[in-house]
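Reader question, answered in our methods column.
A reader sent in the components of a multi-part assembly and asked whether the whole thing could be modeled at once rather than chain by chain. We filled in our standard form and ran it. Here is what they sent:
COMPLEX SIZE: two components
ENTRIES:
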Amino acid sequence: MPDTSAARLSAMYQERILQHYRAPHGRGVLEGATAEGSRKNPLCGDDFRVSIAVVGTSIREVRFEGRGCSIGTASASMLTDAVRGLEVREARLLIERVERLLQGDAPADAASLGDLIALAGVASYPQRVGCARLPWQALRDALDA
Amino acid sequence: MRLHHTDTFGLSTALAPLAPRADFPLLAARPSLHYLDSAATSQKPQAVLDAVVDFYTNANANPHRGAYALAAAATDAYHDARVTVARFLGAADTDTLVFTRGTTEAMNLVANAWGRTHVTAGDEIIVTALEHHANFVPWQQLAKSTGAVFRIVELTGDQRIDLDHLASLLSPRTRVVAITHVSNAVGAITPVAEVVRLVREKSPAIIVMDGAQGAPHLPVEFDVLGVDFYAFSGHKMLGPMGIGGVIGTRARWLECQPWQFGGDMIEWVNDQDSTWNVLPHRFEAGTPNAADAVGLAAGVRYLESLDMVQVRAHEVALLETANARLESLSGLRVFGPPAAERSGVISFTLDDVHPHDLATILDQHGVCIRAGHHCAQPLMRRLGISATARASFFVYSDSSDVDALVDALAEAQRLFAPDAD
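And here is the structure of the entire assembly that came back:
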């Protein structure tokens, strides 16, 4: 039986997060982007830019650039997987759901979140929630732009 | 003295703490905690907590104001604290120590009280790329508002101040050289005598030294250092948060204009003008933080009882112990000069593991380190990184802290290692 803190730690650094960190999806410059948002964490200097290409009301493509810790990078990587193809309205709802997840409020329909559910472990680390939130804030800025 | 004894097999034996953990209530209550963030703030011995409680229990009144015996006791306690701290930092002229909230306020004081009346357009202000934001931004902003030229001394490959570059920047127009005694971010110790010699030879500048990491870790003799101002923070040297100060030469203080106005700092208030109290009160407007000054004095006496030469030797021994053990980690990059020129700070990055991830994983092993830019963004920019992880030692640190650090780093590296396949 692992002790509680070790279990919490592995809950945050689960294999899914580490896979996204080692080989992030959707990283790079988005040619033809229609909007972008950038967020910096003033505490550590981590910096993410999220670019989107919106056609009509749907997000045709999304990419991220920047550097950060495993939590921020995995969050950005998962974001690109989850947001590609969504309606703008759906993307805004997803941002809200991720925010609730990071607050420790796992939704009943967790399965529909896919890989994003891996971010639930971050809620146990209030100092790290900001890392996971950074790319989603950048996405919101892009949607508001 | 507990310096690195070696046994007959040539293996290092454990390095005991210089000060017993039992003296520090927070550490005593957490036997498995490895507090390696003393560069951010030190833990406090019981003697400091007792001194603060004793002031409020037995001497609480407003210093310098009441005519009754209790007010005199408060005034005496505050004065005694000034005497003790001035003695500890080697300033014979006690009244040249002005208490502030800490180094940050001290730097803002000097930049305003001296800088605003002595720096004009075309003058030059020099800082270094090692500075904490608190000894960088006040001067940057003074330069902006006065039209002075703001120059930055670059660093050597091991993050020491490049003295040749400093020499090349100094000129008859240099008015201020603001420089750290010890870098908070990488631990590099400034060769103060050489800096003072260069500045005096080539410019009329005042030297303002950030002693936030110097006063707690090195023997300091203000009257020997030869700088004009030396600032420090009490909470990094066993004292409470919210108290610190700056020592200046009397001549420089007399060139300063008051920067904050109010009670205690005035001599006489006329309808249209006022006159100022004498040193040190002239620069301490408002009710002073007497209780925390008394607490700081208790911390200083505790350090004196350990002897600052021994404090420094203890930290060097810990650094050497750590260096030997850290060699086993691949992908580790340690910043700053070798132990002989570095205070008890190990600032590092580990391949593949972001400093924030390191701090979280180490925390799970009871190891407290700092991860971030250490309020030294100009330095981080020059290193081409956004953050480092930093472990820092003090009097209560011992080799078990080093062991816990190295073991937890190895664990973090295992967790983040790329898949074997």
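What stands out: The mean pLDDT of chain A is 89. The beta strands of chain A are 35-40, 47-55, 58-67.
Send us your own complexes using the same form.
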